[in-house]
Amino acid sequence: MSTVVVVTTHPLTAEDAGGLVDIAGGDAAKARFYVAVPEEPTSSSMGAVVNDWELGVAAGRGVGARSLADAEYNPGAIAQHDAEKVLAASLQALADSGAEAEGAVTPNHPLDSIGDLVAHHNPDEVVVMVRHRHLNELTATDLAAKIRRHFNVKTLRVKAH
């Protein structure tokens, strides 16, 4: 059984789930996934996600924005609700692919969650899903190297979705 931790801020699609099953060895029945979705949305651009993480500024800019009136009324509840929707859709996509999947909404920035997830789940692979259609190989490799060094993770991939 191959265990893969997936960190995402956007719902996984059927195509994403298929790619993750391939990463886990290609046999959905032998793959187990743990999906972590941050409670607070992060910036939608690749550079901003990295900057937020490196500067310790993980706050609700960009994706998942609601109207100002809603956000002022109860921003925590809105963020939690959005994250739960992302988690539910992602778990369903993985289940539809035939894989075993569980997950949780994390209170931390998605990249800060990696250390705790690795310690708790001892995965064979960690995959950070980044919502960025212009993610090039060099940027993905650079981010993966930074995360690997920071959290002492052996096998980590950064994938666009």
Sum this structure up briefly:
With about 160 residues, the protein is α/β, with parallel strands linked by helices. Helices cover about 45% and strands about 20% of the residues. Strand 4, helix 6 (about 135-150) and strand 5 (about 155-160) form a beta-alpha-beta unit.
Task: Provide the fold topology.
Blueprint: E1 2-7, H1 14-23, E2 31-38, H2 46-55, H3 68-73, H4 75-96, E3 100-106, H5 113-121, E4 125-130, H6 137-151, E5 156-160
Parallel strand pairs: 1-2, 1-4, 2-3, 4-5
Your description of this structure?
This protein has a five-stranded parallel β-sheet with strand order 3-2-1-4-5, with helices on both faces. 36% of the residues are buried. Strand 1 (2-7), helix 1 (14-23) and strand 2 form a beta-alpha-beta unit. The chain contains six helices and five strands; from the N terminus they run βαβαααβαβαβ. The chain has one domain: HUPs (Rossmann fold, 3-Layer(aba) Sandwich), CATH 3.40.50. The two termini are 25 Å apart. Helix 1 crosses helix 4. By secondary structure, it is α/β, with parallel strands linked by helices.
